[in-house]
Fold each of these.
Amino acid sequence: MASQIFTICFSILIGLVLLKDVGAYSDINVYELVKGNFSVKITNYGATVLSVILPDKNGKLDDVILGYETVDEYKTDSTYFGGLIGRVANRIGHARFKLNGVSYKLPANDHGNTLHGGSVGFNDVVWTVDEYVRDKYISLRYLSHDGEQGFPGTVDVYVMYMLVGTNRLAIKMVAKPLNRPTPINLASHTYWNLAGHNSGDILSHEIQIFGSHITPVDQKLIPTGKILNIEGTPFDFLKPRAIGSRFKEIPDGYDINYVIDYQTNKHGKLHVHKVAAVHDPTSGRKMELWSNKPGVQFYTSNMLNTTKGKNGATYNTYQAFCLETQGFPDSVNHHNFPSQVVQPGEKYKHLMIYRFTTV
């Protein structure tokens, strides 16, 4: 499996980096990627994933991500269903940071802090579709201007969603600062329920997270700056176990960044590494996630509350899980965390690969 992943990564990073800036699609539309009985729907509003349909162990097809019935509902969304999050995903404490001696003030859209890029993040803008090949991939681009949501510098951003091999979805995110250094931390905020989006809670899903540390947070979910070993604690998923198996000790559910146990190459760059594996015993569906980022936010949809979804569904607490590969939250204010600052002439590169099977 590892050799297949590296082959996929090579083709993504080398073979598909040259995109045509055709700008042929300017309206808000929905695009479907289909290969066999595996399909993904995406809209260029927020570069948002609308659905992921795949078979269970008996061949029954289900949509395994939460979402809304219409694209218009995403415009007033507060859950970030399926969105491409940026310029900086997750939280920035006190809605401010300092870079090269200059202080920057951001929108305080989450209890005095900045969440997921501010009040109008990348999930709330219209992206331009560069290329679309229905059985292969779609690429989308967005130009974030200097000062947008308080962040310095103009940034050219694009994302590619690709069907690779059998029942694999790869997401490639690339961002290039054009004139000033700036923090960049993109994430895909997809809510998963492998039994089907309208099948109840995910507490019986079995999860394994390949991270032995977390970045603990305060009451407002801002990292303290510490990196904490969690082996033997309720946060320990180094061996597979049910998501809800220790919920009595985590009464508010999980919403925490895991430090993935990864290796770097001789240049200090992260290898693509296995982040997590999730199995739903009822449907038999299994999802493996690989990435090149050092952290992953594990979130058990603690804040869902009778949210009206697609196909007449009503989503309640713990009805989905999120695994958002990322840099560490609030890295701009913690110098011991891996830096998210990208310089002009450099590229931010973020790769995610989902592999779906049944067991």
Note: The radius of gyration is 19 Å.
Amino acid sequence: MSNSPSQNHDNGVEQFRHHPSAPPHESFDVSTTVDPAYVISLIRKLLPSDAKYGERANGNGLIREESRAAGITQDAANLPENGGESATMQSSDNGQEKQNGCQSGGESAGEQAWEECGCILWDLAASEDHAQFMVQNLILEVLLASLTVSRSLRMTEISLGIIGNIACQEDSRKHIASVNGLVGVIVEQLFQDDVSCLCEACRVLTVCLRGDEGVIWAEALQPEHILSRILWIAENALNPLLIEKSVGLLLAILESPPEVAEILIRRLLNMRISSLLIRLLAFEMGKLKEDRTPERYSVLDLILRAIEELSTMDNYSVETSENKELLQLVKDLIELPDNFEVASSCVTATVLIANLLTDATHLASELSQDLNFLQGLFDVFPFASEDTEAQSAIWSIISRILTALQEREMTPSMLNFLVSVLASKLDLIEDELLAHPVDHGEQSTDTSGANIDARLISMTRISDVLSYWKLSDESVKNTSFAEGCSINKEDVDKLLDHCRKASR
């Protein structure tokens, strides 16, 4: 959830510390942080001066049309002059909200006044009580009129921002879809060419798709030219925040309940959403290797989550698992040095890889030839300490890789490197076994129907490898291998003991 942006979007966000007091001449004697009459006066000041005709920007340029809000102006002009039952509402700070930043320069005095009022309402809408009160006093109808006739991108951004914050309040969100024409006007804002407006439009759609009225929004998004526009924004945006918001919208569609999914997902699959997401992943991985930029970390994670969602879909997961570029990209992420900065993405990547291996078991043999990947995989464990699914995914991958590796077929240098990797993870494996002892009665089922325990298989295979190495000739043990790596024999003995006990 976000609120109105600071004056400089690149300067981060500031927390909204307080709500404004009503001007003395508009104050009622009520015990609320924000005078309801003041809120109503702010809503009234958002009424467009001419709500009958106006120009509106879309993907084909400026068009002129009759306002769908022609009848709204009179209703909104008759807004009540008192707070009624809502006078008991309380204001509250929300740590996730951004402070508004009313901008000035170039616009008329009327536009400046509109912006100042809009920014205050944008912040107030972050409070559930305020949002409900504003909806009861026709804020949505007023914003529909404003969006329909406005030629100001800043006014459009603020209008969408207010709606976005209202949408984050569950009880208020359902009213958005009930305002005749508002859903369509919001969807049309996807054809703006302004980054801030597009970010807010994507945010509104993302939140509303996840609500109880998701089907209404899905039906509004289903025309091919609208879905194509969303994909185009995601692929062509240069602003990290806009990429995040557009990919977040795609993820919301992919994660949507069945009744919403059946309207949109098949169309997106036919439009090659997977190819788009892999291209975006390749771009973000390139950026990550060039320069660690924190503002891009969330983008990377959203892309991976979207691809992971695709990898679980029937009739489509196999296609994803056969994509060589995708496998290489997630391998690169896991093997990335100092990847704690993108820990969440690494955890998501392991779940994705586990899904890929479920549909393409032959990939385990390919992964087993890259012991740097196995080493990186162990390093993801601390990031997944609170994620049972991710821990299971990591053990599943490790068990498949170790099963594909046959110690008797390894070269001496590869065997030594594998033993070095395993022994270096003694403390990690020991902690994992202490926290989650192997339950020999616990069984899971793989795709072939066989009952397995990935950790039990992993412990057995580690024990086999270490035992084979200990019985090898000294010439094998003394063979040089990866630069900078060594084998601590005491660690080998301790790990072997742990694994033997766990696999009995």
Note: Residues 5-32, 51-106, 444-451 have pLDDT under 50 and may be disordered.
Amino acid sequence: MSCDKELAAAKKAAFLAASLCQKVQKALFESDVQWKSDRTPVTVADYGSQAIVSFVLERELSDEPLSLVAEEDSGDLCKDSGKDILQRITKLVNETIAIDDSYSACTLSPEDVLKAIDSGKSEGGSSGRHWVLDPIDGTKGFVRGDQYAVALALLDNGEVVLGVLACPNLPLASIAGNVPSESAVGCLFYAKVGSGTFMQSLDGSSPVKVHVSDIGNPEDASFFEPFEKAHSMQELTSSIARKLGVKAPPVRIDSQAKYGALSRGDGAIYMRFSGKGYREKIWDHAAGCIVVTEAGGVVIDAAGRPLDFSKGRHLDLDAGIIATNRMLVPSILKAVRESLEEKPSSG
């Protein structure tokens, strides 16, 4: 299975969704941001992005039913208090799909938009084909005006076979050093099994093949971790970095933009250790995982096992997630094991 048609559809969907997100982020109204019951933010751009991706995949791949595992649902938009927001999302979606000539005759109603958003209720699993979407990965970063990503992947019988990451605020140049303020921003990373990972600008430049860092000495490595302290145990990652002899301070950025930056060698290690009781969602890692692995990297849990996307909407993990190159894996796993063993006694 070549997946060329699916990859083309995924790239088109991610590009249009990113266009909508860029428009909203440039002029974000207070009313554009809502709060879910778990106290995490959701914006009109999250909903609009999900509706666009669903619409594009349905249109471009109409020969098979769409199964989409995605973060958002329309529950709050169906309430009386959500009517104005739904109208704004519908307007944004229609303005955005009109960018593409092949959709110029399409106009979605608010009901169409609700239906598109709710197509993301699939549970995924180990059989069949399932798209996996985070319409805005890093919503807090998006609201803050920082990094975020539209992350879309395809599972085939539980395996990630392609992934696309649109990172509208990520510079095209490496973020390893000080990025000049005039540096062009907006990257699209994409990968499919056996074909490598490519990056191009969101404005459509020619793609270039990317590869993870070839650093073999952890002392020379720099590492990424989540910007939000609540998203990872930074004391633990600091302990691991000390054991590895890492000299550079951590680069803290939001979203799966970290996976994109890692895939092109901006840093050599990404570590994420969530707090007790938190279950990682597959949409937070599926696209980033294949982007890194097809660029020659490794994405594993703290026990050294590959991530398993076949169990439904969540990942069952041993302690945390590590993304790096192959040469650094043994020393990182040793440092992780030692730091985890020390952790209980450090309280």
Note: The chain has nine helices and 14 strands.
